[in-house]
């Protein structure tokens, strides 16, 4: 199906109102795009953060009556008769198939491979995690996940109890299980993430060793290894909770951290963790250590 994109430059204050107007006029989807390459790293849970110069993009069916839609928008006070817009065709593609074709097997460390569930594994003798992310975060392509996977590949996971705090697609939990972990507890605020984790666990024949929970239902336990690949704000706010999952002498790894945020994370965790040297990949970082 061919599509049209209606692009309107806006301010952060007006963007949501314009987005609602586009939806009311038949837009199939509305997205907010940074119009001037302004960094915006960390919205809090439930918070919508927009750039000072925000572009609002409405996606319309090419058969829609765009002159009538634009005329409707011109009548709105927030835009006015002479508002600037661009109407552009969007290439008709099977976007899901295109994404699938560009998700390739990836190696992390010496033993571990993350493989799309629809592709052949390149090394049958390796530790292969078969992954279909679904709607949850985590394919291994983002540096934060890659940093954690490389760390996991480099430690002894055999027969360990592991907590994956913010499990997303379950990629870190599955990697730990395929590397020999006895049991993994996955925790996430998103029910779709828990569903994706369990589906991927079944795909990898390790569902019997993975248990997933929403934060309010999470059990009390002490784990040998605790992983939290989220964002620096929640890492700091939830420091006591995350650290408390780790038993004395256990290992802890944190990611989702920008390089310039390392000092804050280390300051928050140093009272409970003997810290390893932090590792940086691009603009992202990993912090790890041993529970005191």
Description of the molecule:
The protein contains 9 helices and 15 strands. The chain has 292 residues and is an alpha/beta fold. Strands 8, 9, 10, 11, 12, 13, 14 and 15 form an 8-stranded mixed beta sheet that branches. Strand 8, helix 5 (171-178) and strand 9 form a beta-alpha-beta unit. Helix 4 (143-153) runs parallel beside helix 5. It starts with a strand and ends with a strand. Residues 36-51 have low confidence and may be disordered. This is Ribosomal protein L11 methyltransferase.
pLDDT average, as an integer?
A: 85
Domain count? 2
Shape summary = elongated
What structural class do the secondary elements suggest?
alpha/beta
User: Percent of residues in helical segments?
Assistant: 25-40%
CATH superfamily of the largest domain: Vaccinia Virus protein VP39
Distance between the termini: 58 Å
Per DSSP, what share of the residues sits in E-state strands of 2 or more residues? 25-35%
For the secondary structure, the number of strands is: 15
Enter the CATH topology name of the largest domain: Rossmann fold
Total number of helical segments?
A: 9
- Low-confidence segments, given as residue ranges, are 36-51
Work out the oligomeric state of the chains in this entry: single chain
Give the topology string: H per helix, E per strand. Answer: EHEEHEHEEEHEHEHEEHHEHEEE
The CATH architecture of the largest domain: 3-Layer(aba) Sandwich
Just give the CATH class of the largest domain.
Alpha Beta
Largest sheet: 8 strands, mixed
Radius of gyration: 22 Å
């Amino acid at each position: 199906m061919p599509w049209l994109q209606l692009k309107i430059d806006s301010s952060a204050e007006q963007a949501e109102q314009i987005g609602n107007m586009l939806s009311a006029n038949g837009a199939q989807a509305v997205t907010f795009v940074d119009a001037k390459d302004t960094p915006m790293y960390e919205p809090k849970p439930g918070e919508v953060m927009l750039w000072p110069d925000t572009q609002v993009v409405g996606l319309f069916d090419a058969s829609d009556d765009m002159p009538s839609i634009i005329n409707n928008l011109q009548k709105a006070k927030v835009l006015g008769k002479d508002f600037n817009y661009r109407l552009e065709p969007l290439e008709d593609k099977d976007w899901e198939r295109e994404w699938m074709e560009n998700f390739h097997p990836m190696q992390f460390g010496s033993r571990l491979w993350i493989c799309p569930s629809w592709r052949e594994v390149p090394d049958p003798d390796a530790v292969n995690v078969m992954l279909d992310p679904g709607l949850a975060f985590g394919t291994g392509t983002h540096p934060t996940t890659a940093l954690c996977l490389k760390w996991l590949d480099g430690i002894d996971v055999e027969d360990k109890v592991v907590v994956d705090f913010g499990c997303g697609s379950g990629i870190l939990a599955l990697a730990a299980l395929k590397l020999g972990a006895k049991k993994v507890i996955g925790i996430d605020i998103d029910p779709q993430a828990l569903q994706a984790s369990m589906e991927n666990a079944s795909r990898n024949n390790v569902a019997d060793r993975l248990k997933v929970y929403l934060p309010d239902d999470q059990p009390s336990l002490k784990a040998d290894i605790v992983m939290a690949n989220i964002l620096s704000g929640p890492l700091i706010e939830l420091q006591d909770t995350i650290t408390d999952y780790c038993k004395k002498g256990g290992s802890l790894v944190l990611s989702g951290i920008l390089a310039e945020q390392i000092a804050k994370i280390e300051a928050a965790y140093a009272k409970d963790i003997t810290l390893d040297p932090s590792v940086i990949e691009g603009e992202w970082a990993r912090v790890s250590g041993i529970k005191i």
